[in-house]
Specification:
- Strand 1 and strand 2 form a beta hairpin.
- The chain has two domains: 73 residues, Gyrase A, domain 2; 149 residues, Beta Barrel (Cyclophilin), CATH 2.40.100.10.
- 24% of the residues lie in helices and 29% in strands.
- It is of the alpha+beta class.
- The protein is globular and about 55 Å long.
- InterPro entries: CT_C_D, Cyclophilin-like_dom_sf, PxpB.
- GO terms for molecular function: ATP binding; hydrolase activity.
- Keywords: ATP-binding, Hydrolase, Nucleotide-binding.
Length: 240
C-alpha cells in the first residue's frame, strides 16, 4: 500500500511533497518516481528537486508558477502508479574493516555481543538502497542495514571523520566521501570517491542505486586509493 502525499510550504520559493514519516523503501520509491516525473514533464517554474527518504523538496520560481498551481500539478503527478524499478545500477564497494580504518568495529561487536567477524559478515551480507544523497557532497544514505547490527548513534559526535568512511547509525548505513563531523559508528574505509569534481560523472551514486560491500585487506587500500585519485571509479558496477 502506498502513502498519500501532502504538500508542505518550505519558504516562499520551495515546497515539500511528503509521502510518509519513516524509512521505508516503498515510500522512497514513490519519492523517486515523482522526482523522475517532474524531470520528464519539465514542469513549468521548477528550478531544482531534492529527493530524500520520504519527501521531495521542490524549488521553484514564483514568477513562473504559483504555490497553488504547482501543488496541484505535483499532487496529480504523485497519484500516478509507481512503475517497477528496472535497470537498477548495483555497485560493489571495497572496504577495509577495523583497526585504524574502522575504529568503532570492536565497540559495535561488543554492543551486540557478537564477534567483529560477525559484524563484517552482517554488513557485507546486505544489499543496500541509496535512499538519498545529502549532508555533504556524495554522502550516500543507505537503507537495508541488517537489524542485528543496528546501533544508536554515538552520544558524543566526532568533529572529524576521514574521507571514505563506511559507518552505521541507527538503522542506516552510509558511504561518506569527504572528511566531516559524524556521530555514526565507523566500521571501515573505502577508497571509492562517490564525489570527485575532476571525474565524469562527478557523483558516482544516485538515489535508487543498490550497493553491496566486500572486505579487502589493508595492503590493497593504497593502490586502489591512488587509482581513485586518478579518477577511476574503483567500485565495481555489477550487472543486474
Amino acid at each position: 500500500m502506498t502513502a498519500s502525499p501532502r504538500i508542505l510550504p518550505s519558504g516562499d520559493t520551495a515546497l515539500t511533497v511528503e509521502f510518509g514519516r519513516s524509512i521505508d523503501p516503498v515510500i522512497n520509491r514513490q519519492v523517486l518516481a515523482l522526482d523522475r516525473s517532474v524531470a520528464s514533464e519539465a514542469v513549468t517554474g521548477v528550478l531544482e528537486t531534492v529527493p530524500t527518504y520520504r519527501s521531495l523538496l521542490v524549488h521553484y520560481d514564483p514568477l513562473l508558477v504559483g504555490y497553488a498551481a504547482l501543488s496541484e500539478k505535483l499532487l496529480a503527478l504523485a497519484q500516478r502508479p509507481v512503475p517497477a524499478e528496472t535497470g537498477v545500477r548495483r555497485w560493489r564497494v571495497p572496504v577495509v574493516y577495523g583497526g585504524d580504518y574502522g575504529i568503532d568495529l570492536d565497540d559495535v561487536a561488543r554492543a551486540h555481543n557478537i564477534s567483529t567477524s560477525d559484524v563484517i559478515a552482517k554488513h557485507t551480507g546486505c544489499e543496500y538502497r541509496v535512499a538519498m544523497i545529502g549532508f555533504t557532497p556524495g554522502f550516500a544514505y543507505l537503507s537495508g542495514l541488517d537489524p542485528v547490527i543496528a546501533t544508536p548513534r554515538r552520544e558524543s559526535p566526532r568533529t572529524h571523520t576521514p574521507p571514505g568512511t563506511i559507518s552505521i547509525g541507527g538503522v542506516q548505513a552510509c558511504v561518506q566521501c569527504l572528511a566531516a563531523p559524524s556521530g555514526w559508528h565507523l566500521l571501515g574505509r573505502t577508497p571509492v570517491r562517490t564525489f570527485y569534481p575532476q571525474r565524469d560523472p562527478v557523483f558516482l551514486m544516485e538515489p535508487g542505486d543498490a550497493v553491496t560491500f566486500h572486505a579487502i585487506a589493508a595492503s590493497e587500500f593504497a593502490a586502489l586509493d591512488r587509482a581513485a585519485e586518478r579518477g577511476e571509479t574503483v567500485a565495481e558496477l555489477v550487472a543486474s
